[in-house]
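Pipeline run #58 for the internal structure catalog. This entry was flagged by the ingest filter as a single-chain record with no existing model, so it goes straight to prediction. Upstream metadata was stripped on purpose; only the residue string is passed forward. Reviewer on rotation: M.T. Logging verbosity set to normal.
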Amino acid sequence: MKENLPRFRFGVVFVTFVIAMGALAIYPAIVPASRALSAMNAQERGGRTVIAPLPPPNPSPPRTAAPRKIAPPASTSRRSPAGTIRTDLGLWNSIKDSTKPDDYRAYLRKYPGGRFASEARDKINSLEAEAVEQAAWDSAWTSNNPDVIQSFLAKYPNGKQAFNARLTLQTHAGIYHNLAGLARAEHRYAEAIEQYRKVIKYDPRGYAYHNLANVYYTQKNYPEAIELYRKAIELDPALATAYTGLANTYAEQQRYPEAIEQYKKAIELDPRGAETYGGLGNVYYSQKSYSEAIEQYKKAIGLDPKYSFAYSGLGRVYYDQSHYVEAIEQYKKAVELNPGGAATHYNLGLAYLSSNNKAAAMQQYESLKNLKSEFADELLAEIKKR
């Protein structure tokens, strides 16, 4: 009996343990139920029945619909992956300054929709156009024909070779200009006109019209000269000598107010032009405005002490005022500076005659004979009258 006692005690302890564990398991459920029942009894005792609200379920976040993904708007340009962009940029940077169209074609073959595709196409078009222009220029320049070069310039007025074309035409014009000047100096006026017109054809600037006008002025073709001087002024409003030429022409036509106006414009543009003051002095002399004439002649001499024309002009003014001593002095200076001036020798002879010096007048007659001037006979006739 004593031998079985430990086993019996063990069993009792085990059963007790099991009962205790069961009680612990059901305790959370029993306690709320007991509390609810007590609450109901208390409510009934208050005279009315109140149904107690059920406890709220365990709080949990509300269920909402999953957000719908919105696709980004389609891009108007093709976007390459980052690696491709870097490769695109790297290739473009390596060729962007190239002058070979094939480099840009290679870029377009590899990246037809690349970021620089438009620029690549523009480069190809530009370089191909330049190549065509260069070939045309090489042909024109090799021809050494100004007409061919002028045709090239008409086709490519703003091309890369336009400056060289104009420069080449100006070189040809310079040659014709020199030929014209030589012909004019030798009184071959028809040839001078022909060469000056070539100058105008290949380099139509103001100076060319001005020089051609000078030839017509020398030939006393004043209407043609006036038209050309005006054209020169239109092309180059700052060309002072064109105003002087126009003034000289008006003076020859005795259009003195117009001549004075043009002389003054020339002086405004270039106050250092001795010939302009000399021409203006002549106009005042023709109008018998002697004080103004003397002033202008002296200004001319001040600018150019070797300007024989101004001394001769002063001599005329003094002679007309019967100041023969002063007139002789000025005429002598003019003759010294320009021994070939037949008109000045003649005027000096008259001044000697007016001062009763026939011997000196005869010396001027001899000078005129040596110059084979028609003034010689006229002066001799005056000498015989005295």
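catalog note: The chain has a mean pLDDT of 83.
catalog note: Residues 86-143 form one domain.
status: ready for reviewer M.T.
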